[in-house]
Amino acid sequence: MNASIHALLVRIQQGEVEAMNELYLQTKRGVFSFILPYLRDIHLAEDIMQDTYMKIFQNIHQFQPKTNGLNWMLTIAKNTALNLINVRQREDSFDTQEMNDVLDGGHDTYEFDSPIIQKAKALLPEDEAHIVFLYAIGDYKHREIADMLSLPLGTVTWKYNKAMKTLREAFRDEQ
Hints:
Blueprint: H1 2-13, H2 19-39, H3 42-58, H4 69-91, H5 96-103, H6 115-123, H7 126-136, H8 142-149, H9 153-174
Helix pairs in contact: 1-2, 2-3, 2-4, 2-7, 3-4, 6-9, 7-9, 8-9
């Protein structure tokens, strides 16, 4: 996967604009799944995903062919999401408690159908939520997630298993 993404980025860098569509089709689920835990809002995540691809295209000249293309893309996605969060924090005039509720998922504008995703959003640390979202929504395998996040496969597997144990315990406690 990383080799084809890298090849597409190089093609875009060389002026093949049509390769941008291929890049989008290959990576959109992963980018979306990566952004969602930051924003906790599907509509904002979709907007930021689109902004990410615009920035990738606008900044393709900065891509270094000897680097990991997917990591470069995910860095742009993360920075774009964090910039939106920072702008909104400066612009919004509601009190601190309301801000904490938003950041903790208290004012989610979209409800996922899956109870496991709901629990993941509410209970898991950001890094574990990323892994669960990439696995459950992005439909990526642990090895692919490890490559995306530049983590050892064992770490991804451990964090995924830890997250799933937390979620199982939460479901068991509800019953």
